[in-house]
Amino acid sequence: MTENVHDVAILSDFRYPGGTSASIAAEVRAQARAGLSTVLVQVRSPHLKRDRPFNPLIVELLKDGSAHLAVEGEQTRAKLFVLRQPRIFTADLASVPRVAADRTVMVLNQAPGDAGDPALYYDFAAVRERIEGYFGTNIEWAPISPQVRTEVLRSAPDAPLTATDWHEIIDVAEWSSRRPEATRDKPVIGRHGRPDPVKWPRTTEELLQAYPDDPGVRVRVLGGGELAVEKLGRKPAGWEIVEFGSMPPRAFLGTIDFFVYFHDPDLVEAFGRTIMEAMSAGVPVLIGEHFRPIFGDAALYTTPAGVLPLVRELHADQQRYREVAQRARDFVESRFGYASHLDRLAERGVRPPGPGTDVEVRRPATPGASGRSRGVLMVSDNGVGLGHLSRLMAIGRRLPQGTPTVIATQSHGASVAHREGFLTEYIPSRSVLKLPRQRWTDMLSSRLEQLIDLHEPAVVAVDSVPHDGIVAAIRARPDITWVWVRRPMWRRDTGTEWIERGGYFDAILEPGEFAAAADEGPTVTDRAGVHTVDPITYLDADELVDPAAARQALGLSPDRPAALLQLGAGNINDISSPVARIAVHLREAGFQMVLAESAIATEPMQPVPGAHLVKLYPISRYLRGLDLVISASGYNSFHELLAFGVPAVFVPNRETSLDDQVSRARFAAAAGAALIIEDPDGEDLDRVLARAVRPDVREQLSSRCVEVAPGNGAAEAARWLSELADRRTSRRVTHV
Fold it and tell me: Region Disordered: start and end of each range (predicted)?
């Protein structure tokens, strides 16, 4: 008998009355529409004391065949196993479900605590221990929002969280049942949600500011209104209280003009699904500033005191009201639509059936001059290494087949991009041309405009700080979608002037950062309109050659341990002295050595006795042939070594202008995934290398990397850029 393998298994308590069940239902609907099968694994949560039936949304899924319910005690097999609601695991399960899956994700859809008690609802370490005891240690821990991520790390700084959030999703078309305008004589302020005291402002003053007792407005509340009335000691004349569950939220949202949501300041709202629903329904939302990391510029941010003036202002300006409503709808569709969920499933090996669903890694096609191109022009800065260029090439080689792709770079590595199969345009940097700043600004802007005219891209993706020349080109070509590919982990108190220029771009794409919890740079507080993906690496793990082939390519014998030294291009700081000392240490420990010379090094490396010099790109292709890597902690090499489980000692470069290599390396060391040499000129080098050459230490490092390894966000970034290109092309065709 053939075992029935489902695409997705979801474990939860399907009696939850609110957002947890609504979120699960949305994901099951998205999966069913894509032809994916779902099995629901029911467990009883210890904190749902009263016996309840399944949520009606879940019942409907089971009725129409969108999902099946697992039989208790029987083996369930799935490609992906998704666990929802960590509070279920605050006590031992009465019966542990038997689930076998290729991948497992624990979605942290609730913060461990609130502002006063970081472990009020659950202890992350205890929950993790229990889940790993049930289902194994190979689990992805995915927060549902930046707020939950922050709170988890506050209570458990070493929590191995995924680089990107497992955000909520919604079908905007199903919720768009109203015209985006407020035509009633009196504006109607409303909110909906499950009854809970902490979901209301703490003071009566703020409660009445957010939901006014004013003859000029009406207030409608679906769910929890009785709690507000109890707090006030009366029901305001203009209020209408609708019992929770007595009408569908979608219908309720059609009866209000403004969605206003303010809660107790101690509450850490996990996501804000009701906010997303209101946006999808075409209702402008007024919320607190703390929601900005999730909803960007799609919401209106104010305080309770600012609600009534803003409502009156917007109600009197119907054009602006429509613009706010439409902007919110578009945002939710692009950020939280069903397609985003299918993408994250595909990243975990779950793809819809049928031809053409496999994601291919490809070399880019040459663009044509059609005038209606879906192409992407990728512009890289002249970085000190190949980081800017490699990130763009990593994305470019994963763009959908047939997408015209051009690399335009100021880097000496232009020849590398050409060898990798890209149509490449070289733009000499200011340092190469030795031009005055204004002349180079004019040159850069003019050159970018020429390239846009020649290749006719729909999107220009810039991995560079926004120099004056780039800003000038953006201003000159507003018909193009401009994207800033902005790596995080900047040094503290640097680069603020560049952050302020982010508004010139139509969107910001942020490659993920393993050490994000230690990031104190300016990108941390600038989250509006930022699309995040997992850390980007040029290769995926299955593209690395096997150990024997790697050793052959690197000129290494198979019978001795081997170490790679890659301390950067040598274009910023003098790396020759630490390299020599490290080489002596490794040689005395019996290691054979490979010295990696950067493809863009401006000066040849000095030979090191006993070391074999190689100049290969990408060097990461051969990492499986190495037992140890001594490396700078630049973005690309750092994430490659962690992702591919290579024992590493990081020697951070302290001379970079923006990149905070020190904090990045310290974080990896604190996580047990690498070692760090803080002072290569002192005794620290000898002490750390003495540990690094030990086989047991290297094994521990490799094992820890496997536990915390980030995914590769290059494919997701390529998909997102391709969607932007499609959207721009569609608008262009419409207006031709």
Answer: 181-200, 347-374
Instruction: Give pLDDT tens digits for 220-270.
Output: 999 889 999 999 999 999 999 998 878 888 889 989 999 999 998 877 777
**Contact (Cβ atoms closer than 8 angstroms) between residue 715 and residue 398:** yes
Task: Encode 389-398: b = buried (16+ Cβ within 10 Å), e = exposed.
Answer: bbbbbbbbbb
Torsion over CA: 719, 724, 727, 733 (sign): negative
Determine the straight-line distance between the first and last CA of the chain, rounded to whole angstroms. Answer: 59
φ, ψ of residue 434 in degrees (nearest 5): 55, 45
Pairing relation of β-strands 239-242 and 140-143? unpaired
Task: Give me the residue spans of the domains in the chain.
Answer: 5-155, 172-336, 376-536, 541-708
Q: Do domains 5-155 and 172-336 have the same CATH topology?
A: yes
Q: What is the DSSP letter of 399?
A: S
What SS3 class is residue 205? helix
Region label for 568, one of left (φ > 0), alpha (ψ between -120 and 50) or beta (otherwise): left
> What is the chain's Cα-based Rg?
27
CATH 3.40.50.2000 for the 541-708 domain, yes or no: yes
Rounded CA separation 80/135 (Å): 13
Distance CA 417, CA 471 (A): 25
Q: How far apart are CA 198 and CA 188, in angstroms?
A: 23
Residues 733, 736: Cα–Cα separation, whole Å: 5
Judging by beta carbons within 10 Å of its beta carbon (0-12, 13-18, 19+), is residue 349 exposed, middle or buried?
exposed
Q: Would you call 27 helix, strand, or coil by DSSP?
A: helix
Q: What CATH superfamily classification does 172-336 receive?
A: Glycogen Phosphorylase B; (3.40.50.2000)
Report the alpha-carbon distance of residue 75 to residue 98 in Å, rounded: 5
CATH code of the domain occupying 5-155: 3.40.50
| Pair 236, 221: CB distance under 8 Å | no
Pick among 3.60.10.10, 3.40.50.2000, 3.40.228.10, 3.40.50.150: CATH of 376-536:
3.40.50.2000
**pTM of the shown model:** 0.52
Closest among 194, 258, 182, 185 to 220, alpha carbons compared: 258
pLDDT digits (tens, 9 = 90+) for 606-624: 777 778 888 888 999 999 9
**What distances in angstroms separate CA 392 from CA 398, 447, 723, one per listed residue?**
10, 19, 16
